[in-house]
Amino acid sequence: MPTSPATLRTDLAPEEASQPNLGALLRHVHRDGPLSRAALAERMNLNRSTIMGLTTKLAAAGLVHERRPAGEGRSGRPSLVVTPAAQQVYVLAFDVAVDRLVAARVALGGTVQQRRVAPRSRSGPDLAAVVSVLARFGRELHEAAPPGAVCVGVGASYCGMIRPGDGMVRYGPYLGWVDQAFGTELGEQLGLGLPVAVGNEAHLGALAEHERGAGVGVQNLVYLHGDVGVGGGIIVGGEVLDGEAGYGCEVGHMLVNPHDGRPCSCGARGCLEAEVGERALLDEAGRPAELIGRDAVRAVVTDAERGDPAAQEAVRHVGDWLGIGVANLINLFNPGMVIFGGIMRDVYVGAEPQIRGRIERHVLPVSRERVRLATAGLGDDTTLLGAAELAFAELLANPLGAMAHAGR
Fold first, then answer.
1. Beta-carbon neighbour count of residue 287 at 10 Å?
2. Cβ of 156: how many Cβ atoms within 10 Å?
3. How many CA atoms lie within 13 A of 391 on its CB side?
4. Rounded to an integer, what distance in angstroms lies between the CA atom of residue 366 and that of residue 8?
């Protein structure tokens, strides 16, 4: 999984330093957009001649463009502005949620150029159907890319526990996916000769919000993602915390109500996601069992804002349990920010007083004095853009090698 780059060494010979510095420079313009050579030199602690050499190599590989800054006067020597080659380099990104499938072509620089969306039914194990739809979308997006554009990677976000390295879904709750070779199957049906990197949706959501969303500049954060249940992604020291085998941060299965808790999809009772997930909110609001999905959740929050008593009580009840979970996470990880994404974004908006009340009562003063609460800055695209960042990882680690591979 991609993480923030380590501090670069500047005492190496030019040929030794070139590769990591190329990747670091490309990461800067990919994440932050157009930057002058002077700004890049300052950020990377390199002299301008070294920056010129790096940008020349990246431009020759078709990864960046250089231009004179707009409005620059004629006096002096203006520092050229380096921009990502958004029309020439892209990845395919896929987001598999419980209720929907999303595919997108995402340009270098992080802009979604084109997308496809399809509903997903809750009809049990559906690997073949999911792969068929996403592969078709991916081929369409690839064929519609600008002439001469190069696809440098494929990434997918899945709502389940993913084995690192091969895209195997070890466990996908709600739809019964157990040991499904999702990444391999999707790669074969896409037929692009590129492997499909797969990550847990909440882990990728944390990465995306850290790189280009609400958590930019925050080195320690907790991201809570709501689909049907609750997933968690945690950034510690700028890196995703993934655990011994890659299955860490399953905060939705943190026990918060051990005595009379609601049943959870994992087989236990009183897990955080059982108390604050989709079904908990809809049941508390008295909504019929056949009413499901993010639109149904948002309708409850909207009704609560309009003064509906049942909806207000449901949002307060769920918000209180969510506040307990958040308080535990703040005490445990001392984050600078907690970000709410997916349906948790909607629940937070309606239940902010309950959540902040639990933090005030249960979080140690030294931990709560600096923590900020925020909704996902990337909106509904958080996990999709996390998948895109996963797909760009090889390019950002080895720009020239990845372009050579893509060309072959």
1. 20
2. 30
3. 34
4. 33
In this structure, the number of other CB atoms found within 10 A of the CB of residue 295 comes to 10
The DSSP output letter for 251 is G
Given the structure tokens 């069992």, which residue do they identify?
289
Nearest to 108 by CA among 153, 41, 44: 153
Angle formed at CA 323 by CA 227 and CA 321, multiple of 5 degrees: 70
End-to-end C-alpha distance for the chain, whole angstroms: 24
Contacts of 161 (CB under 8 A, 6+ apart): 169, 170, 171, 172, 200, 247, 250
- Strand partners of residue 340: 224, 375
pLDDT tens digits for 312-342? 999 999 999 999 999 999 999 999 999 999 9
How many CB atoms are located within 10 Å of the residue 52 CB? 15
Name the nearest CA neighbour of 40 among 73, 76, 66, 12: 66
Report pLDDT digits (tens) over 138-170.
Answer: 999 999 999 999 999 999 999 989 998 888 999
The 3-state DSSP class for residue 166 equals coil
Single-letter code of the amino acid located at 51: I
Of 8, 26, 16, the C-alpha closest to 402 is 26
11-45 core/surface letters (b: 16 or more CB in 10 A; e: else): eeeeeebbebbbbbbbbbbbbbbbbbbebbbeebe
pLDDT exceeds cutoff 70 at 107: yes
